[in-house]
Design brief:
By secondary structure, the protein is mostly helical. The protein has a single domain, classed as Arp2/3 complex 21 kDa subunit ARPC3. It is built from six helices and no strands. Helix 2 runs parallel beside helix 4 and helix 5 packs across helix 6. The longest helix has 27 residues. The two termini are 25 Å apart.
């Protein structure tokens, strides 16, 4: 694992998520897309460490500290161990993994934020569903540049 490249990638994603996409009500969750990427393409130990680091970075962007770290850590760990059983190499399966992870992480994050005293939005179901769909559509296309930057070989276009 190239940790310096990972740190630069996470900082870049945090800046893009916080600044460029901040004006949009429904936007893709770039940190969650990276969580799924690292859970799929790294070994389980690195995937778990990156999941917590990505969650911590997402907490730095958000209004409260802690919910993203916990939910991303749980979802990243589950995906890393699930990937040992099920190979998620094709784009439709990656999109499905991003969709399910976005729903689960989003629901867990909002639940933990609610327990910390943060009010829930009135349209929480719509926002969760729209964000999950948007992330699932955009996510697999971001895997190739992320793999190039991290120097991870993904073999997307070869026959198996």
């Amino acid at each position: 694992m190239r940790w310096f490249r990972f740190a630069v990638l996470i900082i870049l994603v945090a800046v893009v998520q916080a600044s460029l996409l901040a004006d949009l009500n429904i936007r893709p969750e770039l940190p969650l897309i990276l969580l799924v990427f690292f859970a799929i393409y790294c070994n389980p130990t690195h995937a778990i460490v990156t999941s917590f680091a990505i969650g911590f970075t997402a907490d730095l962007i958000g209004p409260v500290m802690g919910p993203h770290t916990i939910s991303f850590g749980v979802c990243g760990t589950a995906l890393a161990y699930l990937h040992r059983v099920i190979a998620v190499r094709k784009m439709p399966y990656q999109a499905l993994a991003i969709f399910v992870a976005s729903l689960v992480c989003g629901a867990l994050t909002h639940l933990l934020s609610f327990f910390q005293g943060e009010p829930l939005t009135a349209q929480i179901r719509y926002v969760l569903l729209a964000t999950s769909i948007y992330s699932a559509v955009v996510g697999p296309f971001l895997f190739l540049p992320a793999a190039w930057w991290m120097r991870i070989r993904i073999d997307r276009f070869s026959r198996h």
